[in-house]
TrEMBL record:
InterPro entries per UniProt: Znf_CCHC, Znf_CCHC_sf
Organism domain of life: Eukaryota
PROSITE patterns per UniProt: ZF_CCHC (PS50158)
Species, as recorded: Tanacetum cinerariifolium
Keyword field contains Zinc: yes
Protein name (record): CCHC-type domain-containing protein
Molecular functions (GO terms): nucleic acid binding; zinc ion binding
Cited SUPFAM superfamilies: Retrovirus zinc finger-like domains
CCHC-type domain segment(s): 125-140
Length: 152
């Protein structure tokens, strides 16, 4: 039994279909079972196991945490709560960005460039001051008054 649990702990990993809570709960249960059997695990080892078990979506965040010096001083629950706070903040930020993009008429796609929807009938050329195009697309002669250097 003990050998089987140690092997499960060694091979423990989370899947991308699991939530942060599910991964934490499974690892916590496994650690509890090992502790009942008097298997000692260092806090740093437990925390590193949790960090390494997270899906690739968390890669950047886990790299930051792995390099922290106080990893052995944090409990698994403290580490988990830090990730939950981060997850919550990212969720709120996503909502705010979407709301901003809706208000400004922009569309942000996850796997592509940002497309900006301009109503070209409202765009005014800085060169000829007519509506419907940008100055870089203007066919009128360039406004030389704008490029005259100002003398002191």
């Amino acid at each position: 039994m003990k050998t089987l649990l140690k092997q499960q702990y060694k091979n423990f990993t989370g899947s991308s279909s699991e939530s942060l809570d599910q991964i934490h709960d499974r690892l916590q249960k496994l650690i509890s079972q090992l502790e009942i059997l008097r298997e000692s695990l260092s806090q740093k080892d437990i925390n590193l196991k949790f960090l390494r078990s997270l899906p690739t979506d968390w890669r950047t965040h886990t790299l930051i945490w792995r390099n922290k010096t106080d990893l052995e001083d944090q409990s698994l629950d403290d580490l988990f709560n830090s990730f939950k706070i981060y997850e919550s903040e990212m969720g709120m930020l996503t909502v705010r960005v979407r709301r901003f993009l809706q208000r400004t008429g922009r569309n942000l796609r996850a796997n592509g460039p940002t497309s900006i929807g301009f109503n070209m009938s409202k765009v005014e050329c800085y060169n000829c001051h007519r509506k419907g195009h940008f100055a870089r697309e203007c066919r009128s002669p360039k406004d030389t008054r704008r490029n005259v250097p100002v003398e002191p």
